[in-house]
Structure formats: C-alpha cells, structure tokens
Amino acid sequence: xxxxxxxxxxxxxxxxxxxxxxxxxxxxxxxxxxxxxxxxxxxxxxxxxxxxxxxxxxxxxxxxxxxxxxxxxxxxxxxxxxxxxxxxxxxxxxxxxxxxxxxxxxxxxxxxxxxxxxxxxxxxxxxxxxxxxxxxxxxxxxxxxxxxxxxxxxxxxxxxxxxxxxxxxxxxxxxxxxxxxxxxxxxxxxxxxxxxxxxxxxxxxxxxxxxxxxxxxxxxxxxxxxxxxxxxxxxxxxxxxxxxxxxxxxxxxxxxxxxxxxxxxxxxxxxxxxxxxxxxxxxxxxxxxxxxxxxxxxxxxxxxxxxxxxxxxxxxxxxxxxxxxxxxxxxxxxxxxxxxxxxxxxxxxxxxxxxxxxxxxxxxxxxxxxxxxxxxxxxxxxxxxxxxxxxxxxxxxxxxxxxxxxxxxxxxxxxxxxxxxxxxxxxxxxxxxxxxxxxxxxxxxxxxxxxxxxxxxxxxxxxxxxxxxxxxxxxxxxxxxxxxxxxxxxxxxxxxxxxxxxxxxxxxxxxxxxxxxxxxxxxxxxxxxxxxxxxxxxxxxxxxxxxxxxxxxxxxxxxxxxxxxxxxxxxxxxxxxxxxxxx
Length: 583
Ligand code: ADP
Ligand code: MG
Description:
583 residues, alpha+beta, formyl-coa transferase, domain 3, eight-stranded mixed β-sheet
C-alpha cells in the first residue's frame, strides 16, 4: 500500500528549513554578523566558547530592534528589509529572507537583548528550540546582543557532523574575516575562549583592512586594480605573478559588498593568470564588483553564498581584462616568440614536426599522474619496473638551460628535470629521517620572532606537533607572535620566516579537517621543494654526477612530490627516424 502523505508538524518543518541555513557555528556567525552590519553598527564583537559549539555571542551597537518586533523576528519570513516582490531586485542589505533568526533559534538556546537608541529600556527574550519561553524588560546598551548556546542540542544528527573545536574555529574565522574585509569602516573583534583572535579597527581604507587581515607580508605582494565599463565597476587588489599559492583560499570576491563564490568569475581570474603562474597555483585576488542591484539576482542560494549575473559574459570580460592588464608587461617578456619562430621555420622548410606523439603522450601522462598513478614509461613495451641504472648505463652528457640534465641511455636520450629530481630525492631522505627520528636540527642562537596573521596563527598552532617532528621548534610568544628556536639543518641558510609562511599556506586547507599524516606529507613536500636546487641553477660537474648517481633507485615513471615528471625519454629510434637513418 502506498504511504499516505502528511503535512509535517511545524516543529519538524522548522528544523528541516533550519538545516539549509545553519550548518555549523560559522554559519551562525555569518548570519548574526550580517544582521549587525545591516543594522548600521559601527562596532561588532563576536565571542565564542569551544569553537562556537558551546556559545556564540554577537554584540553590536546598531539600530536595535523594537520591543514589539522582537517576537516577530523569530518568525519565518519575518523581515524588516523587504516589503514587496520588486524589492527582491533592489537589495541593499545582506539579509532579506527573514530566515536566519527563526532557523538558528529552532536548533539552539537563544537569548536576544536589544534596545533602540531612543528607548529608555531594552527587551530580553529567551527562546529554547524555537519556543519563546520568556520576555522581559531590561536595562542594556543601545544595540543588539544575540547569544546562541548549545547549537544542535536538540538535533544530535547535525551535531555529529561538526568537526573539532579548532576546525570549527577556523571556519568561523574565515567567515569573520570575509565580512570584515567587505566592511572596513566597521570595527570588529573576535574573541575565542577569552582570547582575542583578531581585532580590526575601523578605517576608511579598504587597503588598511586588507593589510590587517592578510598580514603585511601578503599585502606587499598586492597591486591595486580598477576598471569601469558601462554598468560593471571593478576595484580591488591582485597579487603579482611571482606570488602564488596552492589553493584558491587567497581569492575573495565581493559582489555589491556581499562575499560570494562564483565559478565563472574564478575562471576569469585563473585564465587571466594562465601562463604567468605555474599551473595548479592560484593568485591572491580581492575583487569588488559593483553593479546595479537589478543586474544581479542575490536570491538564488539559501545562505546567499552565490549570485546570478544578468549578463555573465560582460562580468567575465571585465574581470579578465582588469587582471590581465596588471601583468601585461610581464606577459610580453615571457611570451617570447622563440617557439613560434621555431614552428614557422619548420613549416617553411617543410620538415615534418618532430615526434609529436611523444610530446602528446607525456602530456597525457602528466595529468594522469596527478591522480596518483605512476606515469607509464614513454617507451612502448618497456617493462614498467624499468629502473635507471647509473654509472653502468646512464651516461651524463651535460646540462641544458641550467635546468635539465641530459643523459645517454641505451634506449635514447634521457632528459632529467634537475629540480624535480632533487626534490624527489630530498623528499625520500626527509621521510626516512622522520621515520627514524633522526632529522638533523640547527638551534638558532637567537630565536627568530615571526608575526603572523590570525589565520596563519591558527594554522600554525594546529601543526606545531608535526613541525616539531620535522625539526622546527616553535613556541607562541604573544598574540600572533611566535619564536622559532630551531630549524631543520637544511634550512640553515634560508630565511626561516619565509619557509614557515609557505608551509602554513600549504597546510591551511588541509588542517581544516586534516589528519596528521596529510599535514606531514604537505610539510615534507614544501620542505623538499624549498631545499631542492632551483629550477635554473648551473651546477658543477661533480654536483651533476652526484645527482645522477643518486637517482639510481628511481623508476623512469617517477614523479616529483607535486606529481610532475622527472624523466623524459627521447627514443633512439626517433632520432634515427628524424635523420632518415635505418638504425
Ligand atoms: P533578515 O536578516 O533576512 O531580515 P533575520 O531572521 O536575520 O532576517 O532577522 C530578522 C529581522 O530581525 C531583521 O529583518 C531585522 O529587522 C531584525 N534584526 C535581526 N538582527 C538584528 C540586529 N542585530 N540589529 C537590528 N535588527 C536586527
Ligand atoms: Mg539576517
């Protein structure tokens, strides 16, 4: 028999709806901060206990809520921000759906205290699992304070999906920073377990806010960008090509002052940086797109995390153009026409292109190796366990472009990317050292103090154990200041601060829910990459020989820890064929 349809009781319906808006403490913080911003506050304080799992409190000095309106604010679709359907296309506030407070209150214990400036007293309401239990008149400062305790206390399934305190805190921090980047004229403070995590003073300048949030080190790598074309106005900051990172975490997009994600805009950004930063790397970009509210639909996502442009192509074009202009001079020098000349020359002489299939093959193999598979040997029919045996069969011919080693082997000419090779060797070496707990360490005579951004500090705190096993002895030495006391011996000559920063950027994503081993792996990769000889470096004959000798245990299919190939074999038959020799 078919199951009968029933209308769910209000209590269940509310919880289902709440699930869309409230996923974790960070979503509560976002909604409450948005409300405080919409109320024209000039000061907003966010306080958490236990990553927000125990308590989230947002205090503002904004307009406050009228006593009669407070119970209304807890009802679904109750909002002071829109009145008519047309208003949906003329939104100037962050909120408008009237869903946040009812959703949050239905899955927590909530207390709201609020006073409008003109009133002598304020109002306090207490609400448990969506049920209003108490309303009273109280004395309180003008503005609003919303307290959310025991999130999901009545929704155990949801609570199970929450992560560790540290990881929830990091997500809160990134919401907090996004909103504060969009509103530099408001001062913000984030406090966790009675400790100030980030304090941002009000400023008229977006640049000042960006520097405070991202840290001076990152800020110095940014350049302003701006353009205006018909209805699309763009402003912001973008990194120089020399400064890239392994994730999209440095990319902030604001559309009409709302932080959103948009694949199309992200594509426009990465396209603009293509060929000027290595593939797989991303720039740091903070971009504000301003268009008439009617040119963008903000009502397409339950948490308003996405928008829909009326004319996406125009936006794509504008973003792409403004970012391209930033590094146009660099492109010209990099985009040397040598390759084109080479190709034309071949065409003119009507000589067949050299061994195209092999190049294509290598390219395909490269992308496969990203997915964790070994690169198959280039030579057809070669046994997959084919190892390069140095001294016996691997004869070093020399170095090209200060970048590649060229060796003669029975099968043909073997090209070796010296950086990739060295990186791989170091990776293996460090791994062995860690496994046997024998990492050589150098104690710094005078500890190096480094100052980090709030996000970097949190990332560092969660990786201190792993860093220690690698030879970094680091202690907290004040708010966002750390003392580096020892470093792995390989870093003796390199600025420890720079290495640390890079490691943190790489681990930032991982540790959001990351396991210790992932962090360790990332650290090993970064460590190897940093201490490996640079891509372009002219080496002494002995150094070359040594490197080639050390490669003995690697398979031809080996890749560097990032997944790039180390070897490229140009088959001997191909050489013969090019010179029209029979063998
Ligand atoms: P929305 O923000 O979409 O209107 P919410 O559920 O977040 O819906 O809030 C409902 C209403 O409560 C808001 O429209 C606003 O009038 C009022 N409100 C909520 N938070 C605050 C605050 N911090 N200061 C002033 N008014 C607030
Ligand atoms: Mg709201």
